[in-house]
Amino acid sequence: MNPVSSSGLCPGFHPDSLRVWGVGNVLLGDDAVGCRVVELLRERGVRGAVDCGTTPENHAAALRKDPSRVLLIVDAADMGLPPGECRKLSLGELDSVMESSHGVPLPLLLADFMDSIEIAALGIQPSTLQLGAPLSDAVEKAALHVANLIAQGKWRDVEGCARDS
What we know:
Layout (H helix, E strand, L loop, with lengths): L17 E6 L9 H11 L5 E5 L6 H6 L4 E7 L9 E5 H7 L8 H4 L8 E7 L12 H15 L14
Helix pairs in contact: 1-5
């Protein structure tokens, strides 16, 4: 088990090797969870956490200029699980489960990066996508949990999403 420093970061964690994209629409309830995770990471001093909102395509150029070894995308994902459940997803699974509040499909946007960096996602099951709603309690708790895992360098410990589709 890795000890955690007073800053909340795991001593062996190298934040420069990881870029986190929080994706979502802050006007649509739990769809904002990716943005919330980025906010929490910034509070913990994690560099490389980017609030992409609904336009991750606006951040691809920065990724090209300053590539990280790992791109981790955090977004609401309809996986048919209880609200707040989190699963690790591959780039190929993104289209089928991520909420579609953004423009360009992420697999298409990131296709040019697949050979040069590792790309993964953490999907968090939403409870509500109601216009103007705040994050639900279950999804807020999940955002805190995911931010802690990322800050501690333990995001890979999240289990994968086994889909029956």
